[in-house]
Amino acid sequence: MEDIKPFIEISRTKLKQASILWAEGFREACCLHRVVLLCYRSKKLLIRTGQCFLLNGFIFLGSLFVLNSVVIPILQWILPDHYTQTGCAEMSEFHGVFRFYSFLRGFLIQLFYVFWFYPLYVFSFILSNLWYNDIATHGFAAMGRSGPSVVESSKQNDKLTSDSKTHAARPAGLGGIMIGIGEQVYSVLLLTFFFLEVYATGFIPYVGKALNFVLLSWMYAYYCFEYKWNFTEWGLEKRLDFFETNWAFFAGFGSPCVLAIFFFSPLVGYGLMAILFPLFVLTATGTEAEQVTSAQRRRFSGADELGKLPIFYAADTLLIRVLSLLPSEAQGRMQDDKTL
């Protein structure tokens, strides 16, 4: 029993650290006043954010509301399943008619989806992703006008760079551009495989929903911070190392994103996420994650650190297996880009 006590004490300390970092990440994600401040500083940012609300909120979610509240009730009135005034004997006579009405109503609703919702979904997805990049660009520029935060951030980044000797510097010129493109391609593939992992965990009995929630939180947190890391020119290896080292903070940051969509249907969840995602991108732009996590680490300097959690290990391993099936030249080029 005495041998277990130190283990229990260490576990309790690490759980406390993880809980505090999770709460810090959650709090940073909910600092939506930064969005108001940044939109006040940049008219372009305000316009782009308003366009996201208009497309995904008013048009997309509004169309869903009209379908469920107006179109479907009208179709049910015109093409009913049954008549309440009809007797049992008469019901048997009109059974085939009611079945035809039901089929026709379902067919018309599917036409509404095929010719309106699905094209609108694709259009919204493509246009929103283009706008997210503009929002992140304008938000980062608006942060630059504030002065001190960017100076502090750059100092913190310099400190992280000096402490991380394992991350090689990216060469200048065409070589650096090619490495940057390779990193972006590898990052997209890695997150694609990670998304498949997230999707698969939803089918695990009992614990699947909880695992799905945590993995989705990490995925959305990474997406939110990726724009900022692109602007500050963090390499892929450095991003993954920082993310996995501060896994509790990013789990907390991504939780509000997932809570907003976790209990809705896929289409409604997409509409809500498309509205809220640019807001969380802007809060991530204004979040000094390096300073927050370093401050908490100093607070527990005398205790055992949480350690690095290999969040992307399964996705990375699967991706490497897939890349091993490619021709040797393409495989070597992708591995060199990842390493650099």
Automatic annotation (TrEMBL):
The chain crosses the membrane at residues 53-78, 98-118, 174-196, 270-289. It is found in: Membrane. This is Protein EI24 homolog. It is a multi-pass membrane protein. InterPro entries: CysZ/EI24. It holds the Pfam family EI24. Keywords: Membrane, Transmembrane, Transmembrane helix. It comes from Hibiscus sabdariffa. Signal peptide: none annotated. Its main location: membrane.
